[in-house]
Please model this.
Amino acid sequence: MTQHRGKFITFEGIDGAGKSTHIAFVGDYLKARGVDVVSSREPGGTPLGEKLRELVLHEKMHLETEALLMFASRREHIAQVIEPALHRGAWAISDRFTDASFAYQGGGRGMDLAKLEALEHWVHPHLQPDLTLLFDVPLEVARARLDATRSLDKFEQEKADFFASTRNEYLRRATQFAARFRVIDSTQSIADIQVQIAAILDQLLA
Ligand SMILES: Nc1ncnc2c1ncn2[C@@H]1O[C@H](COP(=O)(O)OP(=O)(O)O)[C@@H](O)[C@H]1O
Ligand SMILES: Cc1cn([C@H]2C[C@H](O)[C@@H](COP(=O)(O)OP(=O)(O)O)O2)c(=O)[nH]c1=O
Model:
């Protein structure tokens, strides 16, 4: 019998929106329903990708170098983790993917979206997520959550207008690619968000 290709789910949102909080929940929810789940993150997801992550989150660099390193990490991640998982019928769940490059390098930093599209078509011409969960909150809420919890990396230290543009680009893409995006109002309680996510996953499992 031919094995069915697995599903690819990505998690997006500005820093502090609550994305990481829900990834473990999704993994557990799917595993409890018999799904083989492979969970990873970007930038990162492979040993080389994690080295690139260290560089890109902490070193100053040209905007296009930053974008190229994000896509370099992604190329490795797709080849080593995502495609093999989907091919054997597992579901790949990734903490960020290409929408983050459009939102952060494109929206936040102002990189030409056409160049990002060229990189996207080069690196994954035939791969798109089956589902993208966009965790959306006002900037002040995200900032307050970050300030309460952790020391900040290069991106998290950016100013409000950077995150306003990042959030706008995420929301623009959610409209453009409405078939795969689900926007979650992340000002709700964690419990309420999980009920909503469970309903979305049930549709994908059906
Ligand atoms: N819906 C929520 N309500 C209140 N606090 C939340 C909610 N979601 C996440 N948090 C808290 O906000 C902080 C940042 O969440 P996190 O999941 O790490 O964000 P992200 O991965 O999007 O940067 C954590 O301390 C987390 O417990
Ligand atoms: C994947 C990706 C991430 N990023 C940024 C967004 C985040 O600020 C940062 C790391 O993402 P993330 O793993 O969400 O950070 P944390 O674990 O601290 O919550 O990288 C980009 O700018 N472009 C990209 O293509």
